[in-house]
Design a protein that fits this description.
Length: 119
DNA sequence: CCTGTGACGTCCC
DNA sequence: TGGGACGCCACAG
């Protein structure tokens, strides 16, 4: 067994997905219903043992066409977080609009209205 | 091993 | 209300 921690997909726990941290993050994200959103930090606290940044990494690591509703995870300010590489933000906004989520004039989502928190 | 980076969050002014 | 500084930490090279 190699000492170094490899990537998620190649991790030694790959055949035990529910034991991997990323899988627990994904499981939590899957529970956000359509038309609602949660935040990176909130998911991190619910899962436990990880930071908001890691949740962002987990979302970035999702393969294209994943069943995980990553578009429902936004930042604590109610904004769609900007990718450094690529333009996935437009896609995310379009998907959320399609779910009936309203963006204010500054492009933000009202978490008091759409936030799926404490779940 | 060391360093830079990033789909974040909290504080402070 | 807004923007910058800083903390954070897994990953990749």
């Amino acid at each position: 067994m190699p000492k170094t921690t490899s990537s998620v997909a190649n991790s030694p726990n790959a055949n035990r997905p529910l034991d991997s941290l990323y899988a627990r993050i994904y499981a939590r994200v899957r529970r956000i219903p359509p038309g609602r959103v949660s935040t990176y930090g909130h998911i991190a606290r619910l899962v436990g043992g990880c930071s908001a940044r890691q949740v962002g990494y987990a979302m970035a690591a999702l393969p294209e066409g994943s069943r995980v509703p990553w578009q429902r995870v936004i930042n604590a300010k109610g904004e769609i977080s900007r990718r450094r590489h690529g333009n996935g933000t437009d896609n995310q906004r379009a998907q959320l609009l399609a779910e009936g989520i309203h963006f204010d004039f500054k492009g933000r989502i009202d978490l008091r209205r759409y936030g799926w928190l404490s779940h």
